[in-house]
Amino acid sequence: MFEVIKQYSYLGFTHVIPLGFDHILFILSIFLMNTNLKTIIVQCSAFTIAHSISLGLSAADLFVVDSKIIEPLIAISILVTALENIVQEKINKWRIVIILLFGIIHGLGFANALRETGLDKSHFYLSLLFFNVGVECGQILIILLAYYSIGKWFCDKKWYKNRIVYPISSVIGLIAIYWTIERIFS
Fold first, then answer.
1. Cβ atoms of 9 and 134 closer than 8 Å
2. Cα–Cα distance between 135 and 116 in angstroms, integer?
3. Which of 7, 24, 143, 149 has minimal Cβ neighbours within 10 Å of its Cβ?
4. CB under 8 Å to 32, separation ≥6 — which residues?
């Protein structure tokens, strides 16, 4: 059982760092709009809860969506979050609902990736739980790195949005546009 915990925690973590570049960009987009560490971790955890549910349903073959549909939607979710950072002055009151929705989409993408690597059927729930624990740890590490390298020092500066949020969100948005096109036409 310890081996299952170790294996799936590691698998979840590495699915984010270093393998989940799209996931990293999504988490950074969430971070950029509001650098309050507690708020970001709550949003990240809501995202994890949503993707845990859809991942579980999909991994159990109860709700499966073709990766040709999910992968472009993941890229679009990154684009929408990056654009929100550019056009909104402050966090939209619906942001948590949007994050939950995008969490469902990302969970379906995780399920496709998890299906390729295999899920221990004899320890299904344990494997699923610790895969999500690994993902959450990866996300929190990204948030902490972003916070201690950017947020803590610059978020209160008048120029924070102009010099940090807009340029980084623009680059993330452009990458997301490229991924959307690539994933639709591949």
1. yes
2. 17
3. 149
4. 85, 146, 164, 165, 168, 169
Residue 111 has which token pair?
A: 């399920």
The Cα–Cα gap between 20 and 163 comes to 26
Cβ 79 vs Cβ 184: under 8 Å: no
Structure tokens at 47: 């995202």
**b/e string for 92-102 if b means 16 or more Cβ within 10 A?**
eeebeebbbeb
Q: Identify the CA nearest to 105 among candidates 62, 61, 73.
A: 73
Element housing 60 (H / E): none
pLDDT digits (tens, 9 = 90+) for 106-146: 988 877 777 766 666 788 889 889 989 999 999 999 999 99
For residues 89 and 144, is the Cβ–Cβ distance under 8 A?
A: no
DSSP run (H or E) holding 130: helix 124-146
